[in-house]
Amino acid sequence: MSEEVSIRLPGAADAKKLLALLARLQQESDTFSLVDADDPISAAQEADQLDQIRQSPRHLLLVASLDRQLLGVCSISPTPQGNVGELGIAVEKKYWRMGIGTALVDEALYWAETASELEAVGLIVQTRNVAAMKLYQKMGFERTNTPPEMVTDDDGEQVTAVEMVYPLGKE
Predict the structure, then answer these.
(1) Domain ranges of the chain
(2) What's the CA gap between 153 and 54, in Å, rounded?
(3) pTM above 0.90, yes or no
(4) CA-based, 20 to 30 A from 171: which of 34, 42, 47, 55?
(5) pLDDT per position in the chain (171 positions), as tens?
(6) Class of domain 5-167
């Protein structure tokens, strides 16, 4: 790829493109799911949410873009524990194995270390998603002692998933 992929915070002007990216990612993968997929929002509502996320010390949303096209997304959202953020990441399939996922996770962890109020970043990953598990391990995530659990994928199939955590070096 001769052009440069940028990792950045999305602005309100990205709302429509972000909704389109999320729809494409939802169709491409059965390991990526949106919590409110059955309750679509407008571009204006998405723009409002992007502004709120930008102002939050406990939320992060990053996009990977090539020129004006969005091709990946990474988020950290607070969990019920309050001091742990949940990482979510997805990259369009045609851009896999180009380092984009690594760059998104690296930037998200940097934000968590330096700008957030979080003490750790965690995630639940399907064990069949070997590439994602390798990425998380490479980035310093470790499996927790929590036993594997069954989760339902977008096709309604029960699959095994494990919890992983990245402790932040905050005191």
Answers:
(1) 5-167
(2) 29
(3) no
(4) 55
(5) 447 899 999 988 889 999 999 888 988 866 655 555 456 777 777 777 777 777 777 889 999 999 889 999 999 998 888 789 999 999 999 999 999 999 999 999 999 999 988 999 999 999 999 989 999 999 999 999 988 888 887 778 899 999 999 999 754
(6) alpha beta
